Amino acid sequence: MSEHSLPQTDLAAQPDPAAQEDLTAQADLAAARAGDDAAFTRLVEPLRRELHAHCYRMLGSSYDADDALQDALLRAWRGLARFEGRSTLRSWLYTVATRTCLDLVESRGRRALPMDLSPSSDRAILEDPPLTEIAWLGPYSAGDLAGGPVARYEQREAVELAFVAALQHLPGNQRAALLLFEVLGFSAAEIATMMDTSTASVNSALQRARKLVDEKIPAVTQQQTIREIGNARLEEIVTQYSTALERGDADALVALLTEDVTWAMPPMGHWYSGIKAAMDFAVEVPLTRCPSWRNRTTTANGQPAVACYLGTAPDAEHFGWAITVLNLRGDKICGVTSFVGPEHFALLGLPASVD
């Protein structure tokens, strides 16, 4: 052999990473069935984030999603011996998680936004106590969800506020069928097995669910809007909103809003529709009656957001007050949803207070 020639390699002897990964998974599955909880953790850990997102879409609350996922994984651990390998482990875990969520939907009901409860107010309501008896829709941290298409919706599109809010109007079985088919890419036949029903029933549920959801969500998603305006313009809009709030600058704020903008602050029950009503509220409350704001730009539900900290004076410590999620149409803000409550800050990995 020439000194310049390469040695021949036995390709058959080279390890196949996919095959090796499959062997490892099979070994972990066998160990988990034998009671090895560490092996079970290794099996489910790569799927934990997407399962949690599925539970959030079903339930509309990160806290409910936490409970559902914990319960689902406990059910899966206890029932692992019944997993016969006829489907993938991922499909089986989605079956367990979906059925767990359906149990919670039945017992806890749906999550709401102020728009679901009453007509909009045409002027600022100064006495607007929180409605603690309502199960409110909550924000979601979607920072590490995949951005590529899975089925009809991207993962980030599938946690946008408008989509998750629309889902809450569906009965549990329709909600589950739509998510499993449109977001996660399971077939109608697979969903029928997962939900212990017929393929015809799944197709019927999908038809009814699509009709309602399509009526309630915008034709253009927030992900499409963000791509169209670009990151630089998006950052500029969010910074301008944040600065206008901190400075109490009504003119700067109104320049950012569409004529039909909506503004809601769950758990407050009142909400505002149209620039006149929204600005009446903004001027009367956040721009005037709140002593001092410190804001941090962030993201929630895959959308631009602002973490709003409220202080008694500019030089005082400011405490987490609300996570404000912004809906855009073109390069204008068409929706402001401020989720009031310090508990939302930890969900997004944000500090409880700032100087």
UniProtKB/TrEMBL annotation:
Protein origin, superkingdom: Bacteria
Endpoints of the signal sequence: none
Domain SnoaL-like, residue spans: 238-334
Keyword terms of this UniProt record: Sigma factor, Transcription, Transcription regulation
Domain RNA polymerase sigma-70 region: start-end pairs: 43-110
InterPro entries: NTF2-like_dom_sf (IPR032710), RNA_pol_sigma-70-like (IPR039425), RNA_pol_sigma-70_dom (IPR014284), RNA_pol_sigma-G_actinobac (IPR014305), RNA_pol_sigma70_r2 (IPR007627), RNA_pol_sigma70_r4_t2 (IPR013249), RNA_pol_sigma_r2 (IPR013325), RNA_pol_sigma_r3/r4-like (IPR013324)
Pfam families (UniProt xref): Sigma70_r2, Sigma70_r4_2, SnoaL_2
Domain spans labelled RNA polymerase sigma factor 70 region 4 type: 162-211
Family classification: Belongs to the sigma-70 factor family. ECF subfamily.
Subunit comment: Interacts transiently with the RNA polymerase catalytic core formed by RpoA, RpoB, RpoC and RpoZ (2 alpha, 1 beta, 1 beta' and 1 omega subunit) to form the RNA polymerase holoenzyme that can initiate transcription.
NCBIfam families according to UniProt: PRK08241.1 (NF006089), sigma70-ECF (TIGR02937), SigX5 (TIGR02960)
Name of the molecule in the record: RNA polymerase sigma-70 factor (ECF subfamily)
Organism for this UniProt entry: Kribbella orskensis
Lineage, broadest ranks: Bacteria, Bacillati, Actinomycetota, Actinomycetes, Propionibacteriales
